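Kindly inspect this one:
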Amino acid sequence: MGKPFTAPCRSGACRLGMACAGLLLATAAAGLMFAGEAATPARAKGLEDLLKAGESAESADRFDEAGRLYREAAERFPESARAWASLGEYLRFYGHDFPASRRAFDRVLALPDADPLSRAYALRGLGEIARHEGDTTGAIALLDRSLSAWPLPDTHRSLAHLYGTRGDLRTAAEHARKAVDLNPDDPIALLLCASHEQRAGRLAQGRADFEKALRIARLEPDGSHAQPVHCCVLYNAAGYYGVRDDREGALRMLEAFFKTPNHRHLSFEEVWNDPDFATLRNDPRFERLLKANP
């Protein structure tokens, strides 16, 4: 049995949109033991060193290096659910290679000793793939299974987005708040809550959530930032502005989003149909911006 995984708390909390980094942090917080994984101390250290190095590379936007490290972890430690979950999320979110990502997540679920966090991340990743493929019913079922394995704030965020696109804004708001309850310093969850609070007329609470998210992410209200900011922070900040019908703010934040190296995880149709941007659809600048960034 492996020793509990420990990882230092990272100052870049805006990176929590990445399930790879989220998995490492969550396992540290839970103090989980990992049956069947890297059974000797030397192997355990080798695995943890690779996963932490991959996380560090992600944090610095060195995505090719991160992918190499996660692949090495899965190849050297094929018994590790965490290695396969991290590789699967990298392939989904950064590589946009859904068949390879699905295979990695399926490896997690096939491991008899897979820890519940890795199972939860794998199921969440499979749910995100189903959403991208247009199967919202299947996506919700997979995300519900993820929550049954372990209550991840990431999964509640995914469900908030899915229910929002289906027009079930009450359920979407409930999942956004549950994500914040699980991780009050998750800027993406805070921004989701801010949009729903704004929509419900709780303007002061929405503004407070928005401002807290920007402080955590070190993001200025105009979208400028001195260090890397996760693309999902920029996107959801634009969504808050959109719900407020602040078109200038929404467009500025979307421009910042499209400058990030990984904005292509959202298609033209997904952004266009996002209910947060309903007021922008009759603004020709919105359509031009989306068409300029396919």
Summary: The chain is about 65% helix and 0% strand. Residues 1-19, 27-35 have pLDDT under 50 and may be disordered.
